[in-house]
Amino acid sequence: MSISFDKALGAHPAALNLRSERAKVLAENLANADTPHFKARDFDFQAAMQQATAGQKMAPLQTTNERHLQPANFSAGRAEMLYRVPYGPALDGNTVEMHAEQSKFAENSVHYQASLTFLGDRIQGLVGALRGE
């Protein structure tokens, strides 16, 4: 009898990858809080998770030249990046709001840790099953 690790681990590896990508995006937003005309970005985690678990890839962007590069989120089938609408935009055109970004980053960190815990528990369960415990 063969073991399918994809089925055994469930959606947790996909969630972990998406949480990691989201942490990078939110960290970029925080790092550019003082950059004029910087637009805060994020993605819809629920939609990205549904896409990742369904195994569907996003359609690539249309290009006018074969040397144009595809953004990483499109070529790898990841979430579509969206711009965050600020509560009160800054005079310099920057849409990063530190309190909102810090809140989103902390929330994402908690969910990332939870995904790690779930994944670790699944792996321990598989190891226990292989040992016959």
Automatic annotation (TrEMBL):
The basal body constitutes a major portion of the flagellar organelle and consists of a number of rings mounted on a central rod. Its main location: other. One of its GO terms (cellular component) is bacterial-type flagellum basal body, rod. PROSITE patterns: FLAGELLA_BB_ROD. Structural component of flagellum, the bacterial motility apparatus. Part of the rod structure of flagellar basal body. It is found in: Bacterial flagellum basal body. InterPro entries: Flag_bb_rod_N, Flagellar_basal_body_rod_CS, FlgB. GO terms for biological process: bacterial-type flagellum-dependent swarming motility. The keyword Cytoplasm does not apply. Residues 15-39 form the Flagellar basal body rod protein N-terminal domain. Belongs to the flagella basal body rod proteins family. Keywords: Bacterial flagellum, Cell projection, Cilium, Flagellum. This is Flagellar basal body rod protein FlgB. It holds the Pfam family Flg_bb_rod.
